[in-house]
Amino acid sequence: MNNNDVFKKLRVALQLRDDQIIEILNLVNFRVSKGELGNIFRSEDHPNYMECGDQLLRNFLNGLVIYLRGTKEDPKNPREVLDQIAKNKTSISKDAKKPETKKPFQPKSATDKKPFGQGKPSTKKQKPESPVERFKFNSGKNKK
């Protein structure tokens, strides 16, 4: 098992999103971009796959300790932190599942429809010509 596998398993077990991982790494003054994190979590056969180094995993674990336990000056209860994260996730999922209040679909009746070919002309643009057709190619020969 390599560092990438350990990092992936921690992310899944703690249900962390990329922005939370970046926040955890910022607690120990370690800067990493979202794109770099994405490359670390890719499969090994992907062309953008990046190996997770020891330094990144070490800083993540140190930041995770601070994130869950707090510092000596400001200790936290890890259970409360995890419960708060779980509560935030459930409130987000409840908000996402709210049904939207849209008017139900009602088809037009026969009196609302206009006969084909009558009414305003269409303002739709015709299919634009290909930009390649506008250029004249000269292969170096003069045509007379």
Automatic annotation (TrEMBL):
Composition skew (Basic and acidic residues), residue ranges: 72-82, 92-103, 126-136
Pfam families xref list: DUF1456
Region span, Disordered: 72-144
Name listed for the protein in its UniProt record: DUF1456 family protein
Organism of provenance: Flavobacterium lacisediminis
Origin organism lineage: Bacteria, Pseudomonadati, Bacteroidota, Flavobacteriia, Flavobacteriales
